[in-house]
Amino acid sequence: MKNLPRIVKITAVKPHIITAIWNNGEERTIDFAPLFQKWEADKNEQFIKLKSYDVFRQVTISGEHTLCWENVPVKIKLKNKVISAPLDLDPDVLYKKSKLIRKITSPALGALLKKARVDAGLSQTDVAINSGTSRNYISRIENNRSDIQLETLFKIVKLGMGKELELIIH
């Protein structure tokens, strides 16, 4: 099943504009002005409450990784019952209505490892044997086609190449 875009972090809330990071590594902005126009045309009074910036800015992320307003209860009909729940919005609609700001990219780890290996005069097979992995796995990492655990990265660098790895987070 395809990984559907879901919100993982809200990075900014301005009057009727929300910027968020999605699980696909994209930072996107959602402008609610067009949504307000639709909700007003549909006479959707529950959603129109978000036009108040005091209400709007209390947005959170729900357990389903979408935008949620605990401060705006909505009535939901389920069979013969009406229940109250916090207002949350369909993440697929939010994604389609949003605009890409930037793609958050991971470091080019594969290229760094390949350069270090080549500079050390080692083949992929040499590194694989020395680090206890396979040549195929080293190839996949170097071509950014496989994830790598930090422990395995240290083994490849230290044991496979005889080098030191320094990890710095700024």
Can you put this structure into words, describing what you see?
By secondary structure, the chain is of the alpha+beta class. It has 2 domains: 7-103, NE0471 N-terminal domain-like (2-Layer Sandwich), CATH 3.30.2020; 109-161, lambda repressor-like DNA-binding domains (434 Repressor (Amino-terminal Domain)). The protein has 8 helices and 7 strands, in the order E-E-E-H-H-H-E-E-E-H-E-H-H-H-H. The protein has helices at 33-41, 45-48, 53-56, 91-97, 109-119, 124-131, 135-142, 150-161; strands spanning 7-14, 17-22, 26-31, 60-61, 67-78, 81-88, 99-103. Strands 1-2-3-7 form a 4-stranded antiparallel β-sheet. The protein has a 3-stranded antiparallel β-sheet with strand order 4-5-6, with no helix packed on it. Strand 4 and strand 5 (67-78) form a beta hairpin. Helix 6 (124-131) packs across helix 7 and helix 6 (124-131) packs across helix 8 (150-161). The longest helix is centred in the C-terminal third of the chain and has 12 residues, at 150-161. The chain is elongated and about 70 Å long.
**Tally of contiguous helical segments:** 8
CATH topology of the largest domain: NE0471 N-terminal domain-like
CATH architecture of the largest domain: 2-Layer Sandwich
Strand content: 25-35%
Radius of gyration: 24 Å
Keywords:
four-stranded antiparallel β-sheet; 2 domains; alpha+beta; 28% strand; three-stranded antiparallel β-sheet; 170 residues; 7 strands; single chain; NE0471 N-terminal domain-like; 434 Repressor (Amino-terminal Domain); 8 helices
